[in-house]
Amino acid sequence: MGKKGAKVVPPGTAVLPNYTVAIRVTNDEIRRGVRKIQEAVLAHEPNLEPAIIPLSNLHVTLLMLHLREGQVQAAKEALRQAKARITPQLLQPFNKVVIPFEGLGTFADTTVFAKVAEGGHLATLRQIADTVRTCFAEKNLYPTDDNTFLPHLTLMKITDNNQGKLKSKGIQRISPSLYEGLRERELGSQSVEGFQLCSLRKKRQADGYFHVEEQVKFGPGG
To answer: Which segments constitute the A-kinase anchor protein 7-like phosphoesterase domain (predicted)?
Structure first.
Protein backbone atom coordinates (compact mmCIF):
# COMPACT_ATOMS: atom_id res chain seq x y z
CA MET A 1 0.00 0.00 0.00
CA GLY A 2 2.69 2.51 0.94
CA LYS A 3 5.70 3.00 -1.32
CA LYS A 4 8.57 0.95 0.04
CA GLY A 5 11.71 2.85 0.82
CA ALA A 6 9.93 6.18 1.21
CA LYS A 7 11.67 8.58 3.54
CA VAL A 8 9.82 8.71 6.86
CA VAL A 9 12.52 10.03 9.17
CA PRO A 10 12.08 13.66 10.24
CA PRO A 11 14.96 15.74 8.86
CA GLY A 12 15.02 18.39 11.63
CA THR A 13 15.35 18.76 15.35
CA ALA A 14 12.85 17.07 17.63
CA VAL A 15 9.67 19.02 18.35
CA LEU A 16 6.61 18.27 20.42
CA PRO A 17 3.64 16.88 18.49
CA ASN A 18 0.52 18.99 18.14
CA TYR A 19 -1.41 16.70 15.76
CA THR A 20 -2.07 12.99 15.54
CA VAL A 21 -3.58 10.57 13.06
CA ALA A 22 -5.69 8.14 15.04
CA ILE A 23 -8.26 5.37 14.92
CA ARG A 24 -10.99 6.13 17.42
CA VAL A 25 -12.11 3.33 19.74
CA THR A 26 -15.87 3.48 20.26
CA ASN A 27 -16.82 -0.13 21.03
CA ASP A 28 -18.94 -0.23 24.20
CA GLU A 29 -17.55 -3.57 25.36
CA ILE A 30 -14.00 -2.22 25.17
CA ARG A 31 -14.98 0.96 27.00
CA ARG A 32 -16.64 -1.00 29.80
CA GLY A 33 -13.59 -3.23 30.15
CA VAL A 34 -11.22 -0.26 30.20
CA ARG A 35 -13.27 1.48 32.87
CA LYS A 36 -13.25 -1.65 35.07
CA ILE A 37 -9.46 -1.75 34.89
CA GLN A 38 -9.17 1.97 35.63
CA GLU A 39 -11.54 1.64 38.60
CA ALA A 40 -9.61 -1.34 39.95
CA VAL A 41 -6.36 0.65 39.84
CA LEU A 42 -7.97 3.71 41.45
CA ALA A 43 -9.38 1.56 44.22
CA HIS A 44 -5.77 0.81 45.23
CA GLU A 45 -4.32 4.22 44.37
CA PRO A 46 -6.95 7.00 44.04
CA ASN A 47 -4.22 9.63 43.56
CA LEU A 48 -3.72 8.29 40.02
CA GLU A 49 -6.98 9.90 38.88
CA PRO A 50 -5.19 12.60 36.81
CA ALA A 51 -3.49 9.85 34.77
CA ILE A 52 -6.75 8.21 33.70
CA ILE A 53 -7.59 8.48 29.98
CA PRO A 54 -11.27 9.43 29.48
CA LEU A 55 -13.30 6.77 27.68
CA SER A 56 -14.39 9.37 25.13
CA ASN A 57 -10.77 9.80 24.06
CA LEU A 58 -9.71 6.17 23.58
CA HIS A 59 -7.81 5.73 20.33
CA VAL A 60 -4.99 3.92 18.54
CA THR A 61 -2.28 6.28 17.28
CA LEU A 62 -1.01 5.84 13.72
CA LEU A 63 1.18 8.94 13.58
CA MET A 64 2.27 11.85 15.80
CA LEU A 65 3.50 15.02 14.13
CA HIS A 66 4.04 18.75 14.52
CA LEU A 67 2.24 20.95 12.01
CA ARG A 68 2.59 24.65 11.44
CA GLU A 69 -0.59 26.52 10.57
CA GLY A 70 0.22 26.52 6.88
CA GLN A 71 0.75 22.75 6.80
CA VAL A 72 -2.69 21.65 7.98
CA GLN A 73 -4.21 21.66 4.51
CA ALA A 74 -1.36 19.50 3.18
CA ALA A 75 -1.96 17.09 6.08
CA LYS A 76 -5.64 16.81 5.15
CA GLU A 77 -4.64 16.01 1.58
CA ALA A 78 -2.17 13.39 2.81
CA LEU A 79 -4.90 11.75 4.86
CA ARG A 80 -7.19 11.48 1.84
CA GLN A 81 -4.32 10.16 -0.26
CA ALA A 82 -3.61 7.48 2.34
CA LYS A 83 -7.17 6.23 2.10
CA ALA A 84 -6.97 6.15 -1.71
CA ARG A 85 -3.90 3.89 -1.54
CA ILE A 86 -5.23 1.37 0.93
CA THR A 87 -5.95 -2.07 -0.48
CA PRO A 88 -9.48 -2.05 -2.02
CA GLN A 89 -10.57 -4.97 0.18
CA LEU A 90 -10.40 -2.69 3.22
CA LEU A 91 -12.97 -0.39 1.66
CA GLN A 92 -15.62 -3.09 1.45
CA PRO A 93 -18.23 -3.15 4.27
CA PHE A 94 -18.11 -6.96 4.40
CA ASN A 95 -14.35 -7.13 4.92
CA LYS A 96 -13.51 -4.60 7.63
CA VAL A 97 -10.34 -4.67 9.67
CA VAL A 98 -10.97 -5.55 13.31
CA ILE A 99 -8.56 -4.81 16.17
CA PRO A 100 -8.88 -7.16 19.17
CA PHE A 101 -7.38 -5.97 22.47
CA GLU A 102 -6.05 -8.51 24.94
CA GLY A 103 -3.70 -8.12 27.91
CA LEU A 104 -1.95 -5.13 29.43
CA GLY A 105 1.52 -3.68 29.01
CA THR A 106 3.52 -0.67 30.13
CA PHE A 107 6.03 1.83 28.81
CA ALA A 108 8.56 2.51 31.59
CA ASP A 109 5.78 2.42 34.22
CA THR A 110 4.50 5.80 33.01
CA THR A 111 1.94 4.44 30.54
CA VAL A 112 -0.43 1.48 30.93
CA PHE A 113 -1.96 0.20 27.71
CA ALA A 114 -4.06 -2.61 26.29
CA LYS A 115 -2.15 -4.73 23.79
CA VAL A 116 -3.36 -5.57 20.32
CA ALA A 117 -3.78 -9.35 20.23
CA GLU A 118 -1.57 -11.34 17.86
CA GLY A 119 -2.98 -12.22 14.45
CA GLY A 120 -3.14 -11.28 10.79
CA HIS A 121 -4.85 -7.99 11.62
CA LEU A 122 -1.51 -6.72 13.00
CA ALA A 123 0.09 -6.88 9.56
CA THR A 124 -2.86 -5.04 8.05
CA LEU A 125 -2.74 -2.39 10.78
CA ARG A 126 0.97 -1.89 10.17
CA GLN A 127 0.29 -1.51 6.44
CA ILE A 128 -2.27 1.18 7.19
CA ALA A 129 0.18 3.02 9.45
CA ASP A 130 2.95 2.71 6.86
CA THR A 131 0.68 4.10 4.15
CA VAL A 132 -0.27 7.07 6.35
CA ARG A 133 3.38 7.83 7.18
CA THR A 134 4.43 7.53 3.57
CA CYS A 135 1.71 9.86 2.29
CA PHE A 136 2.58 12.46 4.92
CA ALA A 137 6.31 12.17 4.21
CA GLU A 138 5.69 12.78 0.51
CA LYS A 139 4.34 16.19 1.54
CA ASN A 140 7.35 16.76 3.79
CA LEU A 141 5.30 16.14 6.91
CA TYR A 142 7.30 13.91 9.24
CA PRO A 143 6.58 12.10 12.51
CA THR A 144 7.87 13.51 15.77
CA ASP A 145 8.42 10.01 17.14
CA ASP A 146 10.72 7.30 15.79
CA ASN A 147 9.49 5.09 12.98
CA THR A 148 8.58 2.08 15.10
CA PHE A 149 4.83 1.45 15.01
CA LEU A 150 3.65 -0.25 18.22
CA PRO A 151 -0.16 -0.32 18.12
CA HIS A 152 -1.76 -0.05 21.55
CA LEU A 153 -4.66 1.48 23.47
CA THR A 154 -3.57 3.79 26.30
CA LEU A 155 -5.59 3.50 29.53
CA MET A 156 -3.45 5.55 31.92
CA LYS A 157 -0.52 7.87 31.35
CA ILE A 158 1.79 10.20 33.25
CA THR A 159 2.37 13.23 31.03
CA ASP A 160 3.99 16.65 31.25
CA ASN A 161 0.52 18.07 31.92
CA ASN A 162 -0.32 15.88 34.93
CA GLN A 163 3.17 15.07 36.24
CA GLY A 164 3.28 17.99 38.68
CA LYS A 165 -0.06 17.13 40.27
CA LEU A 166 0.89 13.46 40.56
CA LYS A 167 4.30 14.23 42.07
CA SER A 168 2.64 16.42 44.68
CA LYS A 169 0.75 13.28 45.75
CA GLY A 170 3.92 11.21 45.79
CA ILE A 171 3.19 9.48 42.46
CA GLN A 172 6.08 9.13 40.02
CA ARG A 173 5.15 5.84 38.34
CA ILE A 174 2.22 3.50 37.79
CA SER A 175 3.24 0.36 39.62
CA PRO A 176 2.46 -2.90 37.75
CA SER A 177 1.31 -4.35 41.07
CA LEU A 178 -1.81 -2.17 40.78
CA TYR A 179 -3.06 -4.18 37.79
CA GLU A 180 -1.28 -7.49 38.36
CA GLY A 181 -4.47 -9.56 38.32
CA LEU A 182 -5.74 -7.88 35.16
CA ARG A 183 -2.78 -8.41 32.83
CA GLU A 184 -4.40 -11.07 30.62
CA ARG A 185 -7.89 -9.62 30.36
CA GLU A 186 -9.65 -9.60 26.98
CA LEU A 187 -11.31 -6.27 26.25
CA GLY A 188 -13.09 -6.87 22.95
CA SER A 189 -12.60 -5.80 19.33
CA GLN A 190 -12.84 -2.51 17.46
CA SER A 191 -13.83 -2.33 13.80
CA VAL A 192 -11.62 0.06 11.86
CA GLU A 193 -14.12 2.29 10.08
CA GLY A 194 -11.66 5.04 9.20
CA PHE A 195 -9.14 7.39 10.80
CA GLN A 196 -8.86 11.04 11.74
CA LEU A 197 -6.38 13.91 11.68
CA CYS A 198 -6.76 15.41 15.16
CA SER A 199 -5.42 18.50 16.89
CA LEU A 200 -3.86 17.91 20.31
CA ARG A 201 -4.04 21.60 21.22
CA LYS A 202 -7.47 22.82 20.11
CA LYS A 203 -10.55 22.55 22.31
CA ARG A 204 -11.97 19.06 22.33
CA GLN A 205 -15.28 18.20 20.74
CA ALA A 206 -18.51 18.15 22.74
CA ASP A 207 -18.24 14.36 23.08
CA GLY A 208 -14.76 14.64 24.64
CA TYR A 209 -12.74 13.44 21.66
CA PHE A 210 -9.92 15.41 20.06
CA HIS A 211 -10.80 18.25 17.71
CA VAL A 212 -11.00 16.49 14.33
CA GLU A 213 -9.57 18.48 11.43
CA GLU A 214 -10.25 15.81 8.82
CA GLN A 215 -11.47 12.24 8.76
CA VAL A 216 -11.81 9.51 6.18
CA LYS A 217 -14.08 6.52 6.37
CA PHE A 218 -13.96 3.15 4.67
CA GLY A 219 -16.88 1.97 2.59
CA PRO A 220 -19.49 3.77 0.46
CA GLY A 221 -19.80 7.47 1.21
CA GLY A 222 -16.44 7.56 3.01
So the answer is: 17-218
